[in-house]
Amino acid sequence: MKHIYASLSAFLLLMISCTTDRDITETIITPDPEAVLVHYWNFNNLPSGNLNDIAPNMTLIAGGASIDYVGTGDGFMDDFSPGYATNARNSDIDGSGIRARNPSNTRDLIIELSTVGFKKPMVQFATARSGSGATTQNYSYTVDGTNYITTALPTTTFTVSEDPTVDLVTLDFTAIPTTDNNANFKVKISFASDAAAGLTGNNRFDNLTMEAIPLTASEPPSALSYNSPNAFTVNAPIIALAPTVTGTVITYTVSPALPDGLSIDAATGIISGTPTALFLEANYTVTAANTAGSTTATLLISVNPVPAASVIHYWNFNALPTGTLTTVDADMSLVTTTTATITYPGTGAGYMDQVTPGSLLNAQNGDLEGLGLRVRNPSNTRTLDIKASTNGYKNIVVKFATEKTGSGATAQNYSYSLDGTTFITTSLPVTTYTPTTEPTFDIVTLDLSAISGVNNNPNFVLRINFGGASASGASGNNRFDNLTIQGNNL
Fold first, then answer.
1. CA 156 → CA 101, 149, 153, 284, 315, distances in Å?
2. pLDDT tens track for 458-469
């Protein structure tokens, strides 16, 4: 009889060994029965080649999970097959997994795992190594998105088995309350041992899951609201719309799709962006949901054309007196608290005076060409400073007509000041220009609308420096007419 039992045992052992080409080492830790699957990577649909920022195959927190392999050196992350059945969900096949290739001692596997709306997270994954892969995995986590710690983590290091033996690793955060309801929660896997510095070998991962307990599993969110109505301007960044809501929200969605250029953050519900096309006023329904239910809010959004710009300051120069000019006030200004002026400070014999004829280019209000402003050489030791407050206005654009005489300066260089003292060219789309020779005027447009510091600024000054070999001459000049500073009301 003993021989019969021995033979039967051997037969059963043989049958079990033939059912798989992987040996499995598992420490079974059962998640809380209230826990749900929040994030899951089965890795079965990965593209070939180097991989970065791998999104989960399933998640309850849109935009709240990813995997990357960060650091330096030649190590990289790619897929391998076949993967493993260990920890697979939904009857998934073993398919493929990810491979963190050596040298791995200079890189870390970073797993972003938002727990917003959940508590007591538990992370599990199947892992193995190749024969020359790193033998040690070290685990840490961050609750601020930056600083990694091991405080209260039961498992901080693990010796990985060589494929075909597959290990199930469980990282239990259920007793670490700082990982609850945390958008910055991440897990880091670092690699160690002499093999980690090698040029071949890898560590392998499959079926990575995070399970957690919903914070308010029996209570849906309520009282969702946004500021409404909202009239936005095309091609202008909006002030972000943040929701108010009662209760815990796992994800936000919106229907229909927001106007082009606007988006909603699925985790926070914040609507932001820059609308890129005109849209008539329409209703948009935002839904805030958790595992127990949802609530909605309706908001009105329209995207309108850019309002017509106002001419804030204007010099037509038609009333200039004869003789040397030291200060030229604007012919028209909407900002009356200060005076808009043009001066020509510096050293040497250069000076400003009137010139005739001027130009019709950029003339406002049907003005005649009349007179223009002449900036005489030597101009390389002076600057033309246009001081013009933009108080109450934004989207500032400066335009003027300009030309030079045959011996006038061949280069005009542009800069601006936000404090009236320090001059810069930051974000200025045009910083230098070669003026045409008389009798042909051209228009120069300096668009400062993308420079927020120019908006609503009483100290704004535009400066023109003059260059080229002829700028130092004793004769010749540059000429200007119909200078406007335009903007929109704040």
1. 21, 10, 6, 47, 73
2. 999 999 999 999
Tell me the average pLDDT of the chain: 91
Residues 6+ apart with CB under 8 A from 146: none
Do residues 360 and 331 make contact, with C-beta atoms less than 8 angstroms apart?
Answer: no
pLDDT at 87 over 70: yes
Determine how β-strand 293-304 pairs with β-strand 230-233: parallel
In the chain, the N- to C-terminal Cα span, in Å, equals 98
Segment 211-227, tens digit of pLDDT: 999 886 567 889 999 99
Environment class of 229 (CB within 10 Å of its CB; exposed 0-12, middle 13-18, buried 19+):
exposed
> Kind and range of the H or E element at 10?
helix 2-17
In tens, the pLDDT along 340-383 reads 999 999 999 999 999 999 999 999 999 999 999 999 999 999 99
Q: What is the DSSP letter of 196?
A: G
Which residues make Cβ contacts (< 8 Å) with residue 44, sequence separation at least 6?
57, 83, 92, 93, 95, 96
Alpha-carbon span 66 to 71, nearest angstrom: 16
328 neighbors 355 (Cβ within 8 angstroms): no
Q: At CA 151, angle to CA 150 and CA 153, rounded to 5?
A: 70
Distance CA 199, CA 169 (A): 26
Q: pLDDT tens across 103-141, in order? A: 999 999 999 999 998 999 999 999 999 999 999 999 999
Sign of CA dihedral 173, 174, 179, 182: positive
Q: Residues near 324 by Cβ (< 8 Å), separated by ≥ 6?
A: 351, 352, 353
Is the per-residue pLDDT at 9 higher than 70? no
Query: HSE on the CB side for 147, CA within 13 Å?
Result: 3
Which residues make Cβ contacts (< 8 Å) with residue 299, sequence separation at least 6?
226, 227, 228, 229, 230, 241, 283, 284, 286
**Strand positions, DSSP E, 60-117:** 65-71, 77-80, 97-101, 107-113
Q: Return the closest-CA partner of residue 92 out of 57, 68, 54.
A: 57
Whether residue 352 contacts residue 375, with contact meaning beta carbons closer than 8 Å, is answered with yes
